[in-house]
Amino acid sequence: MEKDTNQLQLIPTYCPNFRCLSHKGTLEKFFRKNGIIRTKKPPFSNQRYKCLQCKTQFSSNTFSLDFRKRKTELSENILHFSMNGMSNNSIASLLKIAEGTVRDRLKELARQSLIFEKENYPRQIDEDVAYDGFETFTYSQFSPCYVNTAVGSRSMFIYHNTFSPLNRKGRMTEEQKMKNLELLKKYGAYPRNSVFEETVYVFQNLSNLAPGRTLFMDEHRAYQRALRSFDFRMDYETVNSKVRRDPSNPLFPINRLHSLYRHFFSSQQRETISFQKHEAALLEKMQIMKIYRNFMKPKFVKKNSYDPYAHIWSPAMYIGVAKKVLDFGDVFGVRRIKTQIKLDAKEEAFMNRYYPYSRQKIV
């Protein structure tokens, strides 16, 4: 999307009509100007356009992240506050808006970040990868879950975040056992092979993109089953989870990412009163963090004696899918539509917030 220096408005590069031949973008001029609409919100005047192919009419505001939003220019602050440890209620209080507004903006940011990721995902992985799971819960501790994560060993680029529900395990008081039985009778048990299925999904993708590279993982039984379930084209090495978790550990990229989750997500901090209300909210936070850490932040904050570019380059720069550390406008400056990209079943479910095993209402 280019910027019109005369009117300071975005010039469209695609038609919003998904049936139009120009919907997925074109370098040719496919529109003509069609008047101006005066508004009471910034930018106070919207340039109207008309597609020359399908005759669809739209405005420059159609391509803004604040499209059809009552309050504008909130998303950037919400993104940075959320990714740096503030809860939704704290953000709402600081910006003097409703908490529901924060949730809606984060939901939109998560969808836009998935589209951005699909357009900028590497076609080949030229580094080793570390894989493990992040265990947490949604709504209550009777609904534990496992976020399966894959991270580049050198770049620390986050390649995958997928979700696996778990059944409650470990010690419980008699009251907790009764509560757990009530939930099982009402909703049934979560799928017992969910970690295996999600691991197969991630391993198949990594196997296609990084053949011959090494996959580091711990000794989880589901991971071993996943390796035997198809023709895995990567080498692999298991690491005992009791090995010291310092930079010499092959799983250090994973351990560091999980530490960032604990540090920067208010809902994942120890003994917190903040928590994710359902699976969709958790996965959306993880998706935004993926883009935020991959493209908008350097690999490390401070200088590193082993890597002179660690405090300058983002993980995306290491793998060649970005030329600089991107800012908010580079990633979210133009609103994209999901019909412009090809989504698989899991990505489509993410866009629609569809989780059939959820015990909570997701809207």
Keywords:
globular; 363 residues; Nucleotidyltransferase, domain 5; alpha+beta; 3 domains; 16% strand; 10 strands; disordered N terminus; 11 helices; 5-stranded mixed beta sheet
Structure commentary:
The protein is of the alpha+beta class and 363 residues long. Helix 3 crosses helix 8 and helix 5 (194-209) packs across helix 6. It has helices spanning 75-82, 88-95, 99-120, 174-187, 194-209, 221-228, 252-264, 279-295, 315-318, 328-332, 345-351, and strands at residues 2-4, 9-11, 31-38, 45-51, 57-59, 129-137, 144-152, 158-165, 214-217, 235-238. It is built from eleven helices and ten strands. The strands form three sheets. It has a five-stranded mixed sheet with strand order 8-7-6-9-10, sandwiched between helices. The chain is globular and about 65 Å long. The longest helix is centred in the first third of the chain and has 22 residues, at 99-120. The chain folds into three domains: 2-63, no CATH class; 65-120 and 288-363, no CATH class; 124-264, 2-Layer Sandwich (Nucleotidyltransferase, domain 5), CATH 3.30.420. The model is unreliable at 1-8 (pLDDT under 50).
Question: Nutshell version of this structure?
Answer:
The protein has helices spanning 75-82, 88-95, 99-120, 174-187, 194-209, 221-228, 252-264, 279-295, 315-318, 328-332, 345-351, and strands at 2-4, 9-11, 31-38, 45-51, 57-59, 129-137, 144-152, 158-165, 214-217, 235-238. The chain has 363 residues and is an alpha+beta fold. The longest helix is centred in the first third of the chain and has 22 residues, at 99-120.
